[in-house]
Design goal:
The chain is an alpha+beta fold. About 35% of the residues lie in helices and about 30% in strands. The longest helix has about 35 residues.
């Protein structure tokens, strides 16, 4: 009697539809998770190499590349002073237009041959040398490189975590022969039809705009009385179920993708 009262109280409690297990097909999870993980790893590699090369460039001598000033630009769109410099060294841009201060703008003249200081690994232009003067270009410090590299690393880590788990779950559900499918019998305690504009399930897995259908089940097993699980289901299954139906569900153990949801003959129904 007490267990029935507890079960009735649990069934009347609000159901949390949030789940880290998106209920999508294992094959789709492998593809989506694998692609996102690849992008995240690419960002991590770019950020790591940029950080390493940036540190090495900060303690190395610059590369001196000769160039010829061809034009002064005083009325650029952003209001900054610039020099147009022609470069004839292989491996470097044939023309650069760096931002300069008023000192470089007035000291360096058209047709002057100058040396451009590039970092040896990242090839970042940060200095000019001409008329026996060394000019550090504005906004050419290494701080921006380090900030960008750290930002790429953090973004890569954030993007990698869940997609990697998603791909792993999909792989396990597809190829783990020991536990390929799980089966439970449960009572329908809630149904949901939600229009999703940014996710296929609340908070997870992006999809096009569509209606997401879900079912919340309470296990019939008395030992698992308090365990309630939610699953994504098709529209047809959603329309065939009512609150209180007893159903038998076959699902993947990691992603909780529902393969089969079928009513139990003779199962109780509560309005």
């Amino acid at each position: 009697m007490r267990q029935k009262q507890e079960a009735s109280a649990l069934e009347n409690e609000p159901v949390s539809w949030w789940s880290w297990r998106p209920g999508i097909k294992p094959r789709n999870a492998c593809i989506i998770g694998g692609l996102l993980s690849f992008v995240a790893l690419l960002l991590l590699c770019i950020g790591l190499f940029t950080l390493i090369f940036g540190i090495e460039d900060s303690v190395s001598q610059p590369l001196q590349v000769p160039g010829v000033v061809t034009h002064h630009i005083a009325n650029s769109g952003d209001g900054q002073l610039r020099l147009r410099i022609r470069v004839h060294t292989i491996g470097f841009p044939t023309e650069v237009i760096p931002v300069v201060s008023e000192i470089e703008f007035h000291d360096i003249h058209d047709s002057n041959t100058i040396l451009l200081g590039y970092s040896p690994n990242l090839h970042i232009l940060y200095a000019l040398e001409g008329n026996d003067q060394h000019y550090i270009l504005p906004n050419s410090g290494s701080l921006g490189i380090f900030v960008g590299a750290v930002a790429l690393l953090l973004l890569g880590i954030v993007l990698l975590l869940y997609p990697a788990v998603l791909a792993y779950w999909g792989w396990r559900d597809l190829y783990d022969r020991k536990v390929s499918r799980c089966e439970i019998t449960g009572k329908v305690i809630s149904l949901r039809a939600a229009v999703q504009t940014r996710a296929g399930r609340p908070g997870l897995t992006p999809r096009p705009t569509r209606t997401w259908f879900g079912v919340a089940l309470r296990f019939i097993d008395a030992s698992a009385l308090e365990q309630v699980m939610t699953y994504a289901i098709s529209e047809e299954v959603y329309k065939s179920l009512r609150r209180g139906d007893v159903v038998h569900i076959t699902y993947s153990p990691n992603l909780h993708y529902a393969y089969v949801v079928e009513p139990v003959e003779g199962g109780e129904h509560v309005e």
